[in-house]
Amino acid sequence: MEGPVPDLSEHAAACADRLRDADRVLLASHIDADGLTSAGIASLALERAEIPFETVFCRQLDERAIADIAATDYDTVLFTDFGSGQLDIIAEHEAAGDFHPVIADHHQPADGVETEHHLNPLRFGLDGATELSGAGASYVLARALEPDGGDNRDLAALAVVGAVGDMQDTNGTLTGANEGIVEEGVAAGVVEEGTDLRIYGRQTRALPKLLQYATDVRIPGISNNEAGAIEFLTELDVPCRDDDGEWKRWVDLTGDQRQTLASALIRRAIASGVPARRIDDLVGTTYVLSEEQEGTELRDVSEFSTLLNATARYDRGDVGLAVCLGDRDRALDRARRLLRNHRKNLSNGLQWVKEHGVTVEENLQWFDAGDEIRETIVGIVAGMAVGTDATRNGIPVLAFAENEDGDVKVSSRGSYVMVRNGLDLSVVMREASRAVGGDGGGHNVAAGATIPNGTVAEFIAEADRIVGEQLE
Ligand code: C5P
Ligand code: C5P
Ligand code: C5P
Ligand code: ZN
């Protein structure tokens, strides 16, 4: 077993040994698509290694959540998709003998501390925002946990869902260690890699909806325009409806028909003056889970990850985890119902931002949704608002929402162009939040924080100053 990243795998072997030494393990994970797939991978690996465990999910791994974990009588805690950012707090509990931590994460580690069993791509010269996700780190650990004669490479399917759920493929393809995981998944027969139209909903959306809702690359007369999308499809020499007159989905078309449609879409985009750089984004690498049924959300890694967010971000991580573990029955039905609700909330959230607009400071822009957008999805909405005309280009977006404790949740989103110019939102969120008595962290391109009620203005001023220094 070498795994996709040899150094990381070597350290994973030590983490695996520590887990094997435990009588039982508490598995704690994050409530989003990457966190759920991390938990799915870790659960299956622990089960196959015959290590007893129990699973818990946390919204945010803050001091209180860690204290709750310390209060259980588990001696060994496996943190997945979080833990690095809270290494200082975790190390204190370890020193106090509360528990022994094993961490598989990809967030920016807290400064000045280290623990023995800490698996994080950033410690091995890899980028945690693009080259390996929490699910990827958990996958590397799962490979190290393989019992003699075992093969955990089938878990690469979930690792790819986690990476795409954290938007690690926004440059058009997965790279770095993620690419190694894809190769292992292909070899194990669970992942297929291809070149295809990169529009959300290829498996489940009827063609007019697929095109109408495809707003990442806006095509005048088709995006956000139902009649326009229908007209475009009707004029094509491709049978877009079945014998009953129902609209087909992308997956229902043959390879040739897809090619015809994609070419026509690109010609239309060029004719409408869409910049070449954006047109390039229309086609790219796509990942399909070979063992999932065609035409379902689970077949396409991007739709799968949205389905998982639809559970975890609404306190139903148990439902999403059950889907990850193979429930294609009750849990999947429930997840689909939650998905309809999630979609409605995302669409309403984006609409709210468009109507209310953002406030532009010197180096950043922000909106405060109060209780209009759920704090657990305000980051996704902020990400969807970047690149639309609701926001300005070239500076990051900060989003605020009330959380259930009456504190304020902050989400921030930038772009890789800004990161190349020096932006690191994990530092901005950590330093600006600590300055007002809160805490935060994350990745260079996307990060978050929680701050006390009443400190928003001070926080914005502090964040604006730090972003200004970074982008200087
Ligand atoms: O906690 P976690 O690592 O899972 O969250 C990463 C977040 O960063 C996701 O919500 C993802 O959508 C966001 N992200 C982004 N743009 C990127 C990379 C990640 O908005 N280019
Ligand atoms: O929910 P998640 O962060 O996985 O969504 C990833 C992306 O998928 C969103 O940023 C959005 O562009 C797209 N999406 C969409 N329609 C939905 C849900 C997600 O276009 N209903
Ligand atoms: O919640 P949101 O999607 O905005 O989170 C973006 C990133 O920031 C995630 O990776 C999340 O884990 C991280 N974050 C954090 N500390 C917080 C809030 C968010 O590290 N208090
Ligand atoms: Zn993650």
TrEMBL record:
InterPro entries: DHH_CID, DHH_sf, DHHA1_dom, SSDNA_exonuclease_RecJ
Listed SUPFAM superfamilies: DHH phosphoesterases (SSF64182)
MF terms in GO: nucleic acid binding
Residue ranges occupied by any DHH-CID domain in the UniProt entry: 199-283
Domain (DHHA1) ranges: 381-468
Gene3D superfamilies: 3.10.310.30, 3.90.1640.30
Pfam families on file: DHH_CID, DHHA1
Protein name (database record): Recombinase RecJ
Lineage: Archaea, Methanobacteriati, Methanobacteriota, Stenosarchaea group, Halobacteria
